Here is the input.
Amino acid sequence: MTCTRRELLECCAAFGALTLAASIPLTAVATEWDEAEKKRQPTPFCELGPFYKREAPNTSVLRAPNDPGMPLAISGLVYDTRGDVVPDAKVEIWQTDYLGHYDNEGYRYRAVLNPGTKASYAVDSVMPGHYPDRVCQHVHYLVSAPGHKPLITQLYFATDPVFEGDPDKNYKRDPLITSRELVRPVVIKGDPKQIIAAVNFDVVLETL
Amino acid sequence: MRALTAVSFLSFCAVVVAQPSKPIMRVQLPCESRYQALSPTGTQVAVHCKDHSVRLVDVPEGIQQRVFPAEQRANSFAYSPDGSWLAVGNDDGTVEVVPSKGTGPSKRWNADTRRVDTVYFFPDAKAIVVGPVDHPAQVWEVTDTPTLRATLPFDFGGLIACAISPDGKLLVTAGDDTVIRWYDTATWRKMREYRGFLLETFALAFSPDGKQVLAGGADARITVLDSATAKEVRQLPQESGSYIVGIDVLGSTQRAATAYLDGAGVKPPHELVWDLTTATSLPVKADTPLTCGRVIGSRLWVCSADRTTLTMSPYE
Here is the structure.
């Protein structure tokens, strides 16, 4: 059985294993403890470009019908380092098509997402391709929100053949991947006729 | 090095022109190398070795003057305009300024916590611009104890490219945020900005009279900006499927050598010389892939490297 820090604290107090000074209410201590438990580390930086493009369309559907490549569903939440969700964030993402080509003349596979008050986002795309000057498949992120430092990072996929099934050991094969945390597990969903690679990528912003 | 090597490639890419002529210099290389950077006087070349070390080699003697070992993780380089100093930006956020010849004392300091992607000398070599990745650009006075003179912020990200006007009074920067900004180098006040680009700018250059700024990048075309107003003057034709990584004006002429990379990163660099008055271009033809180039005076020098030799040729 597992319990939260608050439950543990309450149990300890109830059974006399913890004595609190009279001036510190148990609820205040528990709240402090909960806050500490919620805290999150900021999402690591990973460089911007090249090929960021401003004014991408507001859309969560990047994959057009019959687009070649493995369908990819990315979802996540936007947090701050206290562990609270960040309302009114703006998530800009961009990636190559399945062959590793960026669309610089138009806006294919580029989007602005507005997670709103729930701070959740989801996007339908395709698994980006490899290209000669980069080792791993990746999706670029620029996440901004009032009162927070803009986050520039990239999402990588644990299924990338470059990792040979062991991203813990091999993630540094791409010199731009500075943190294992950016390599996310991929869950295969759907039915045999329509397989979808699903990835969760929560991002954590630092306050200004 | 940035993704797709575009930005760091700025310093080392082939910037080339017109018809090839006979090679007139051959230099023995100390290592196998993909990219090199010619000094402004053409008397030295910084050789990027495949083992990640960087070696300064005199031209044409082939004498190795200095080695930056791979462990230093040197990431960006720039010669001073007179070629006597070399600034090096390292992965650990330090910057080093060393004499390009001899074993004279160097200066090394912690400029930032992030990798330094850009270093750029002022004309008098007494100050340099330092661009750490994802952090504001910095201006350092290079004294015995280097001093931070200014911090130049962006909406987000860091510095990609910069240029200083011929009279030294203006610094123009291009940031990850796609904005071009002009700064007064006496006060470091931002004078104006241009927000017309949707994509990143990877190369900047002033026209010889300082009245215009040439900007090129992911949109694969040179955009001419009026330096006094930050307004767009005109755009030259686009090289579809590629992007610009270097612009170098040929002396006091109205011609600019412009280096392009293939957008898919497959083909070697190709080069055009643009006539800015007619908006027409000439391709540079070369028998072997070019690995470096630089305008020295008003003449373009280009080079290509095989395993052991660097061959340099002038282009008229």
Residues 12-315 of chain B form a domain with the Methylamine Dehydrogenase; Chain H fold (CATH 2.130.10.10). Chain B has one domain: 12-315. The CA atoms of residues 165 and 210 of chain B lie 6 Å apart. The longest strand of chain B covers residues 242-249.
